[in-house]
Amino acid sequence: MNRELAAGLLERFEELGLKIIENTDFARISTDDALAVTLAHEHGQGKFLLGYTDTLTATSQQWRDRTLDGCRKLLLVGPRITERSAEIFRLQGINYIDQAGNAFVSFEGVHIDIRGRRAPRSSTQRYTQLKRGGVNLFSLKRSQIIFAFLTWPGLLQGPIRQLARAAGTSIGQTQETLELLTQYGFLDDCRKLSSQQREILIDQWAASYPTGLGSQSRTHHFAGDWSNLKINDQTVYVGGEAAAPVLVQPESVVLYTDGLPMSLLRARRWRRDNEAPNIFIRQKFWEAPDEPDHPGIYQAPLLLTYADLLASNDGRQREAAIQLRESSL
Length: 329
Known about the structure:
- The protein is of the alpha/beta class.
- It folds into three domains: 112 residues, Trna Endonuclease, Chain: A, domain 1 (3-Layer(aba) Sandwich), CATH 3.40.1350; 72 residues; 113 residues, no CATH class.
- The chain contains nine helices and 13 strands.
- A seven-stranded mixed beta sheet has the order 1-2-3-4-5-6-7, with helices on both faces. Strands 11-8-12-10-9-13 form a six-stranded mixed beta sheet.
- About 4% of the residues have low confidence.
């Protein structure tokens, strides 16, 4: 690439807080070249296959077939990416940064999503994340459907009504979501999900969770003693760090219920607290194929616990999320 483009891309990396650990001269990267690099950010590091192309379009998906090893994600850089191509790249898990500052970079502990930039900005200017254009594959209802079949893979090959029931969505919404997943290459024509596409979906789903199903507006905040929980009039699922005591010493708990667990609130005298909460309660949005027959305290699905941990600003929980992903997901 030419020096001007190389300098512009280097500025974009710096603005995003990203640094390539290896000594890499962007100006020496030729079209369709590929380099194994380690991308560093204050919140973590990730291994990537860095590629340069003059046209960041959907046809660049051919890059997905070029890998150096199974641990590296793809990161493409170039002059400009269109909104349509950017949407396809995000859904396919292809990371990108263009000269204007549009970027999608996602790895453990880091999720950058910048859209709508028309021209390069000064490195002193801050970026504002713009509203997602086109189809949002991770809207609330679609996220519920993706969560259901990632948690219970057998649902993909069963009747759609069973998947819809587990996801808490309508049959129409479920059918539409499966068609979109097929259109974007996540599922094949037989509704099968490859291991590689599953990994990408887990990354994308967990990255969207803090602003969707796990958003603050959908969470009740309390403070109090949550140790040794017992309940006999409601089913409660435990998530967050309290669901991974082997990996981290828990200081808080995330609970998923059908409505607030009033008996627990009264018995434990939990108080609402938005300043220093240690109890987070969210609406349960799924119905497991093996839903328990009796009320009580149960473990939340692992994918949900992983997302809870990853969404935390606590380094201990993020580290636990990485360990959980490596060992169980």
